[in-house]
Amino acid sequence: MKFNQSNIKKAKKYLDKNQCIGVPTETVYGLAANAYSNIAVKKIFKLKKRPKTNPLIVHYSSINSLKEDCLINDNFIKLYKKFSPGPITYILNLKKNSRISEYVTNKKKNLAVRFPKHKIFRELLKKLDYPLAAPSANITTKLSSVEVSDVKEEFGSKIKYILDGGKCIIGLESTIIDLSNKPTILRLGGLEVSKIEKILGKKLKLNINPQKKISPGQSQLHYSPGIPLTKNVKTPKKNEAFILIKKKKINYKNYYYLSKEGNLNEAAKNLYSCLRKIKSKGYKSIAVEKIPHKGLGKTINDRLDRASKY
Ligand code: TXA
Ligand code: MG
User: Fold this and answer.
1) Where are the domains of the chain?
2) For the structural domain made of 5-206, what CATH number should be given?
3) The pLDDT value given to residue 217
């Protein structure tokens, strides 16, 4: 990981020219561009092959800069104080005079906002006089990127610069909570819902697989390795890659481990790299053993469910 001011300067130079660049966050890498610029934001959609109806998350360095674009409320303040910067995204109402490009939200009246924790990304944000729209740095429906080489694999020479921040420490996208209405969880992610419920003092509604989708990222096919994946498998088929939560004594060539001791945070961090690796080895299908449905295991299971809708 190279943390030096000249890399940050370089990143700023590209962004100031309305270019898209890869940026590291604590969750996954993002494909970032100036959220106030129509030209820059349109490039994100094109590069990702993303339907224009699927809005982007905008990343801010401080609550003061956020206040220029969004209306805040009490629930937001409570959660912000406890969890930001960190792996949580809030949906808030846009202000009438907000400068956010209409392409970010597809003309919706609310905006997804996040305060990333990664040091290098924060340093970059502080140097800019605009916030950054940044979806995950992957082609739509494919696996998210957790290190620079993944971003290169997704976009090749189509993006001019990737700010290197090493491997993402969480490895799964942020948890999304809608605060523009009755607080509702729209995506499971790197922050456990139970921790959010504790701060708000109530059980939260989950709307992660609705009939009427609020968040297009709730679409069933997502985070896909591009080959069939089956969950809760005890014995894999011959020639199939097998993902296990905890290292076993016996070691077969087709066995892949998410963690040494069965730690769910470590498993989360390794999930996307593991799927990417299996795909690169040319396996035609993936079996996954049962993952405990607690803590970040719930987010892992959510991603595996969507990956299995291949
Ligand atoms: O961890 C993360 O959140 C990463 C890093 C780069 O910050 N970003 C990320 O962005 O996962 P993306 O675009 O891959 O996923 C954002 C999700 C999409 O499912 C999108 O539909 C939803 O957020 N979303 C964005 N704006 C929304 C809005 N105004 N209302 C409801 N859902 C929204
Ligand atoms: Mg994504």
Assistant:
1) 5-206, 229-307
2) 3.90.870.10
3) 53
